[in-house]
């Protein structure tokens, strides 16, 4: 016997305050030779480490996410007006990351320290969720409740009753767990406010589930 069914999509949302902070740092420059590029990359890395060490970050906690040294060129016109490619030197780039618990006071201290670092790194601040399980659970529960509410309205309007759930489909995609709220350069004025009080918004997410219900004829129920 064929089972009648109803398919409804439910949308859920959930939010939570961030529980961790990540600072991404970028060290970059161009030097005449490969050896000089390597030396300056190593020097600037050590300067960042010396800056962050008094703030409780060991060498292992200052993680490198990308490092490269490549030939650098630029295009410009020569004396005849012809566009040519000119060798500038060797460009090095070292991307670093530090992670710590959400603490606005400590964040202010770290940003101030980075603003005075001799390496002059560019940096961005991200607030994110390390414990994402609770948000994912709340999101799914809300999505299923939304689907159920819609299904009940449709069933009542159609003069039928909902039976058991036949299936629930969810794509299990990655939820967004971070928000970029601040980007700056260590070349900022040294007389700027040393303690930056950043209060990030809660991190919000939404997603959908597809629920299939069995439909019961009210006369047979």
UniProtKB/TrEMBL annotation:
<dbReference type="Pfam" id="PF04402">
    <property type="entry name" value="SIMPL"/>
</dbReference>
<dbReference type="InterPro" id="IPR052022">
    <property type="entry name" value="26kDa_periplasmic_antigen"/>
</dbReference>
<dbReference type="GO" id="GO:0006974">
    <property type="term" value="P:DNA damage response"/>
</dbReference>
<protein>
    <recommendedName>
        <fullName>DUF541 domain-containing protein</fullName>
    </recommendedName>
</protein>
<dbReference type="InterPro" id="IPR007497">
    <property type="entry name" value="SIMPL/DUF541"/>
</dbReference>
